[in-house]
Amino acid sequence: MKGLIIVGSAKRNSHTNALSQYLKGQIEEKDHEVHIFDLAERPLHMLDFTGQNPVVDEYTKNAETLKQLADEADFMILGTPNYHGSYSGILKNALDHLTMDQFKMKPVGLVNNSGGIVSAEPLSHLRLIVRSLLGIAVPTQIATHDSDYEALEDGSYYLANDEFQLRARLFVDQILSFAESSPYEHLK
Ligand SMILES: Cc1cc2nc3c(=O)[nH]c(=O)nc-3n(C[C@H](O)[C@H](O)[C@H](O)COP(=O)(O)O)c2cc1C
User: Which residue among 20, 138, 148, 183 is least packed, with the fewest CB closer than 10 Å?
Assistant: First the structure.
């Protein structure tokens, strides 16, 4: 199985990236491949069909890479910080660069991190988007808080909370099980 984790934070070394790294480790332990596409490291243009605005080649290439990885993925994970009670605009823009072709009947896991009051609301909002893209948002989701992480010397974080580590493992088991069983293959 191949997976793709899209990280929608505006910050490099975000908590959402740290959570994604933890999930990646769990997925790889189970001998599956997964790629993290962190939008703070590989930004995209705002979706723009005018053809009249400046184009940064690197951003265009990033969008092509994202699409290719999403095409190849058997499952996806969307990771977002809580921005104004919802998922980030950066993540929404990335999803706007994709279509149902990349999501149709694929399992999609949802994770987010809040710095204020912990909230799963961004994930409820993302569920609607995944439905519109014809993906299958799996029931287990993860909503962490900054305080669930500890900082490393290089400025990055790692997921330190035991309960969330356990939840992350359950989350990975569930999404892999959906991807492996793939009962909807004939509906693609
Ligand atoms: C534009 C913006 C809006 C935010 N809105 C909220 C919010 O509504 N609730 C909240 O708990 N934190 C909010 N935050 C704080 C972020 O959730 C917090 O910085 C968190 O650590 C981001 O996670 P990250 O490190 O994965 O980017 C906001 C931050 C930004 C930049």
Answer: 183
Q: What span, in angstroms and rounded, lies between the C-alpha atoms of 82 and 70? A: 23
Q: Give the 3-state secondary structure of residue 1.
A: coil
| Cα separations in angstroms, 89 against 7, 8, 134, 158 | 12, 8, 20, 24
Please name the residue that has the structure tokens 């991807």: 179
pLDDT for position 16: 98
Task: Say if ligand 1 is within 6 A of residue 9 CB.
Answer: yes
Ligand 1 centroid, distance to 64 Cα (angstroms) = 28
Nearest protein CA to atom 22 of ligand 1, as residue? 81
Q: What is the pLDDT of residue 183?
A: 63
Write down the residue that tokens 């490099």 correspond to: 12
Q: Sign of the C-alpha dihedral, residues 175, 176, 177, 183?
A: positive
Rounded CA-CA distance 148/165 in Å is: 10
The pLDDT tens digits of the residues spanning 59-113 come to 999 999 999 999 999 999 999 999 999 999 999 999 999 999 999 999 999 999 9
pLDDT, one tens digit per residue, over 118-136 is 999 999 999 999 999 999 9
